[in-house]
């Protein structure tokens, strides 16, 4: 079988085009969703372990709820039935956004407990987590800084229940 140089070049060109083709958008979003799940679940569970709380499990319904709210790019609680933490920033990685919540531990007093992001993160009765990180256009959350990351995490059952702090928050 004779193959001429033009055929070889054409075959190589089409093969490299297939290899270099970008992944479909849904695959990129699936990868981003898996990364968000792994990152946020790991950060929560590592931190909860330091405060005597059991590991959370991922809940896709909570993640979908978080996604719907985050994609609105309005920095305001959803008012839903779940516990909820919000974080936003420009140029921060996930760990820095999460740290915004956990840094509130220094303000927590068991003698005068108040609800905070920290208390929701470590709330012992919460067993499920779903988070989503949206990229929001300049002017939606912050103005003049470019795109911002907006993270919404939902918790079930909801934490920060008045009268239950002593049983659910271990500093």
From TrEMBL:
It comes from the Eukaryota. Keywords: Signal. Gene3D superfamilies: CAP. Residues 1-20 form the signal peptide. It holds the Pfam family CAP. Residues 35-163 form the SCP domain. PANTHER family: CYSTEINE-RICH SECRETORY PROTEIN-RELATED. This is SCP domain-containing protein. It comes from Cryptococcus floricola. The lineage of its organism: Eukaryota, Fungi, Dikarya, Basidiomycota, Agaricomycotina.
């Amino acid at each position: 079988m004779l193959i001429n140089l033009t055929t070889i070049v054409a075959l190589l060109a089409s093969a490299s085009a297939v290899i270099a083709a970008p992944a479909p958008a849904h695959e990129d979003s699936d990868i981003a969703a898996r990364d968000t799940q792994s990152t946020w679940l790991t950060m929560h569970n590592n931190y909860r372990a330091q405060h005597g709380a059991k590991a959370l499990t991922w809940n896709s319904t909570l993640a979908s709820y978080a996604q719907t709210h985050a994609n609105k790019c309005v920095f305001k609680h959803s008012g839903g039935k779940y516990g909820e933490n919000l974080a936003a920033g420009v140029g921060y990685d996930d760990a820095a956004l999460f740290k915004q919540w956990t840094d509130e531990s220094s303000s927590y007093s068991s003698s005068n407990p108040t609800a905070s992001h920290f208390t929701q993160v470590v709330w012992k009765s919460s067993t499920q987590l779903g988070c989503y990180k949206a990229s929001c256009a300049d002017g939606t959350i912050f103005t003049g800084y470019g795109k911002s990351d907006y993270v919404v995490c939902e918790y079930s059952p909801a934490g920060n229940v008045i009268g239950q702090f002593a049983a659910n928050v271990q500093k």
